[in-house]
Automatic annotation (TrEMBL):
Compositional bias ranges of the Gly residues kind: 46-68
Domain YknX-like C-terminal permuted SH3-like: 310-378
Name of the protein: Efflux RND transporter periplasmic adaptor subunit
Start and end residues of each CusB-like beta-barrel domain: 232-303
């Protein structure tokens, strides 16, 4: 027991030295890694690191905050007078000149059907008829009553002339005759509803009705449309409303065939749409060869005049903002923003109605990088 205790006591100093050596090695390794891979920023700034020191020694680095005073290269457009056709582009819809849904006004079975789908019909032509036996029987009965009441009225008139009856008794007989005649006219009008005729010249649509089909009042049978001429419905922005006139010729392009036709404005809505702020306009096209079909979409171009001194800039140079539009111009080698008002626009250019003058240089590239007051270099 005495021997083991002495051995343990002797080994303790050796273990302590070993742990000290290991700890010193770990600390030395950490210091090496720190110096090697994570140098102090202060040391970099004080040292001879020429790259960062040279760039930072100049403060902001010249005008516009560009390193070394560099100028942002931009391309510009020189504003000049150009020819411009005041043309408004819009989309329109083709409507039939007249269109109606043919419905039944009575209940009953269809007894005859003269509807030829997709074929033209003339005004007054019979389209279909509904079983009207009951209405015809009621008319026949009323006609017999009228003959009876007419004979009674004649007898009463004779008696009145001889003063055998009072005027009141005659008036009762006469009133009975007049009432029966009115009832007959009402029955005749009801019978006429059983024979449905075309209200105007046009072309019939499709139908699902056949002879024997039972219909009720309001049942849709077919459609009738007059497609020569057709109407073109479109709208122009409210700012052009005062420039549109009845009689103006508009160019329409069929989106299906890409063919162009000329239509003439014949009606202008007296009110501007309060939601879209547009002016509804309607034109008419002869459509003599059925070039356009109702329901189709067309592109509409309305010529409002021509200007020889319009100012236009590339579309990409105009910047939309919450309060309007602006462009960036070059003045004294620096960028200067300007508020502008726009007019007619196309895919490539936009008319500027206010804010620019002839000779202004408008920046068209690098718009996202440049800021007001930045120095810029105009390149070709």
């Amino acid at each position: 027991m005495q021997y083991e205790e002495e051995t343990t006591t002797a080994s303790r100093p050796g273990r302590t030295i070993l742990w000290i050596v290991i700890s010193a090695a770990i600390v030395a390794a950490l210091v090496f890694v720190k110096i090697k891979y994570f140098p102090s920023p202060t040391a970099d700034a004080k040292g001879g690191g020429g790259g960062r020191g040279a760039a930072g020694s100049g403060g902001k680095g010249g005008p516009g905050g560009k390193p070394g005073g560099q100028k942002l290269p931009v391309q510009v457009y020189l504003v000049k007078p150009t020819n411009l056709s005041d043309e408004v582009a819009a989309t329109g819809s083709v409507l039939a000149d007249e269109s109606v849904v043919i419905k039944s006004e009575l209940s009953g079975k269809i007894t005859s059907l003269a509807i030829k789908e997709g074929q033209p019909v003339r005004k007054g032509q019979l389209l279909f008829s509904i079983n009207a036996d009951e209405a015809q029987a009621a008319i026949n009965k009323q006609q017999y009553n009228i003959r009876l009441f007419r004979d009674q009225e004649k007898r009463q008139r004779t008696l009145l002339d001889k003063e055998y009856i009072s005027a009141q008794e005659y008036e009762q007989a006469n009133n009975q005759l007049q009432t029966s005649q009115a009832d007959l006219r009402a029955l005749q009008a009801s019978l006429d509803k059983a024979y449905v005729r075309a209200p105007f010249d046009g072309v019939l649509g499709l139908t699902t009705a056949t002879v024997g089909t039972y219909v009720s009042p309001g049942t849709e049978i077919t459609t009738l449309s007059r497609v020569r001429p057709v109407k073109i419905d479109f709208a122009v922005p409210g700012r052009f409303a005062s420039m549109v006139r009845v009689g103006d010729v508009v160019s329409i392009t069929d989106e299906g065939t890409n063919k162009k036709y000329d239509a003439k404005v014949y009606a202008i809505d007296p009110q501007i749409d309060p939601v879209s702020r547009t002016q509804p306009v309607r034109a008419r096209f002869a459509n003599t060869s059925n070039e356009l079909r109702p329901g189709a979409f067309v592109k509409v171009n309305l010529q409002l005049g021509e200007s020889t001194d319009a100012l236009q800039v590339p579309t990409e140079a105009v910047i939309p903002e919450a309060s309007g539009y602006s462009v960036y111009t070059v003045k004294g080698g620096k960028m200067v923003p300007k508020k502008v008002k726009i007019g007619i626009r196309s895919d490539k250019v936009i008319q500027i109605t206010d804010g620019l003058a002839v000779g202004d240089s408008v920046i068209r590239t690098g718009i996202l990088q440049v800021k007001p007051g930045d120095a810029v270099q105009v390149i070709q």
